[in-house]
Amino acid sequence: MHPRPVDRLLLMTTLAATAARAGSWLVDRRRVRPARAGLAIVGAALLVLLALYGPGTDATSYWSFDLAHPYTAATLSLTGTDAFRYAPPLAYAFLPFHVLSFTAFRVVWMAIEFACLAALVGWRWALALVAMYPVTLELSSGNIHLLMALAVAIGFRYPAAWSFLILTKVTPGIGLLWFAVRRQWRDLAIALGVTLIIAAVSFALSPHLWQQWWVMLGADLSLNMIGDHPYIPIPLWLRLPAAVLVVVWGALHDRPWTVAVAVTLALPTIWVQSLPVLLGAVPSLIGRPAFKARPHHAASSPTGDRSLAV
């Protein structure tokens, strides 16, 4: 008998609580520093191996699509290696990389992802995290989840970063509720405005690509998941309300880390390599100044209290 979606969600919550308890025991500098050093050595070795032999399964779709018909393969499979799935502006953004050989692009793309990871957690922890399976898998496949994590983290200070999340995975845009609940209308307007401007320019250049993209999104609803790709089998219709509750609670209680959790929950599919999106919560959890939002006026917060500014 297969577990119900609600049972799976409860299981995930229990596992998260257990991990938090284990983490509280492990966060002791006497234990952390040697462990981090050992993991960093493993991570550095893995980076070299991935640069030399990594398959770049997802990166293939960013490098090989045909701009005239970028979504043809995407309408056939959720996991096809040539299935480009992002909005047309991203197709134009990836187009310059097509001048590279695939090997060169794969290495460059992995370097970009690792740079995002290092920006979030620092290079020492970044090397250590490379040894963690979800991060290893993300760097190996070459998806955009570490870029998404960085976009979430800098989105508090630079709301325009949300355009990347909306124009790629779409549903993670639920995180914009953070600004709406906190009445940070200027930030919300920037995030939506930049997204609309980028989309409008792209539409003016190639309206047929937008039509193809909408057809592809509709086709996604009828595509079956392929079992040999590791993912968390909780349907989006159950995860989206949970994402809304998480981000609304976080906005009301000044918990910016909840946005990364909500964005992860709102992903169209949560693959194992999607979990690094959660690293977007790290800068707010450790209070890194470079990622803090600009201060808002008291009227910006739902209670009129300046203490709610991120």
Helix-strand layout with pairing:
Layout: H1 5-26, H2 29-53, H3 59-64, H4 88-94, H5 102-121, H6 123-130, H7 133-141, H8 145-155, H9 162-168, H10 177-181, H11 185-205, H12 207-220, H13 236-252, H14 257-265, H15 282-286
Helix pairs in contact: 2-6, 5-6, 5-8, 9-11, 11-12, 13-14
Task: Give a quick precis of the structure.
With 310 residues, the chain is an all-alpha fold. The chain has helices at residues 5-26, 29-53, 59-64, 88-94, 102-121, 123-130, 133-141, 145-155, 162-168, 177-181, 185-205, 207-220, 236-252, 257-265, 282-286. Helix 2 crosses helix 6, helix 5 crosses helix 6 (123-130) and helix 11 packs across helix 12 (207-220).
Q: Please state the oligomeric state of the protein chains shown.
A: single chain
Helical proportion? 55-70%
The number of domains is 1
Largest sheet: none
Per the principal axes of the C-alpha atoms, what is the gross shape? globular
Q: Overall mean pLDDT score? A: 85
Q: State the low-pLDDT regions, or none.
A: 298-310
Distance N to C terminus? 45 Å
What string, H for helix and E for strand, traces the elements in order? HHHHHHHHHHHHHHH
As a whole number of angstroms, the C-alpha radius of gyration is 20 Å
Count every helix, treating DSSP H or I runs of 4 or more residues as helices.
15
SS-based structural class?
Answer: mainly alpha
Q: β content, as a range? A: under 5%
E-strand count? 0
Question: What does this entry look like structurally?
Answer:
- This protein has one domain (32-308).
- With 310 residues, the protein is mainly α.
- Helices cover 60% and strands 0% of the residues.
- Residues 298-310 have low confidence and may be disordered.
- The termini are far apart.
